[in-house]
Amino acid sequence: MPRIADHVGLPIVHMIDEVARHLTTFRPRIHTAGLLATTGTVRAGLYEEWLDRVGIRLVLPDPTSQDHEVMTAVRAVKAGGRDGVTTLLLSRAARRLTARGAQAVIAGCTEIPLGLPVGAVDVPLVDPALVLARALVHRATAGQAGKAAMYCTQYVTRPSRLPPPPQ
């Protein structure tokens, strides 16, 4: 990443790095996080690599849960289905991760937050897209955290139209 940033002359904000940083801000400290994501994302190992750098152990779904719960739900969301069955599948997979020690669950692909509402799990549910959005707005507003948080909240709660940039 630093080589790319040097080459293009622009700062690069890495979503998974931001998620790792975000997880270090929780109190009490998170030592173990679970990941719900596509099989390809899980196999790529990026979350594991970045979380390891900040001392957080990653728990992954077992192969049966990955195939029959996570991927079934992801395919349903991609097909336009966002119903109780999808929520049930993802919440069951999340509970399996928390039973294995996950103190937070990362919604590691864009379909997961669409099928798994925050209240469906008993631990923090981390949406990487939202973490990235907040990091970008924070950087764009030169650290004016209040404006950045308000901007992100407005966008997330009203996704049909992008609010004007903070003044």
TrEMBL record:
<dbReference type="InterPro" id="IPR015942">
    <property type="entry name" value="Asp/Glu/hydantoin_racemase"/>
</dbReference>
<keyword id="KW-0413">Isomerase</keyword>
<dbReference type="Pfam" id="PF01177">
    <property type="entry name" value="Asp_Glu_race"/>
</dbReference>
<dbReference type="InterPro" id="IPR001920">
    <property type="entry name" value="Asp/Glu_race"/>
</dbReference>
<protein>
    <submittedName>
        <fullName>Aspartate/glutamate racemase</fullName>
    </submittedName>
</protein>
<dbReference type="GO" id="GO:0047661">
    <property type="term" value="F:amino-acid racemase activity"/>
</dbReference>
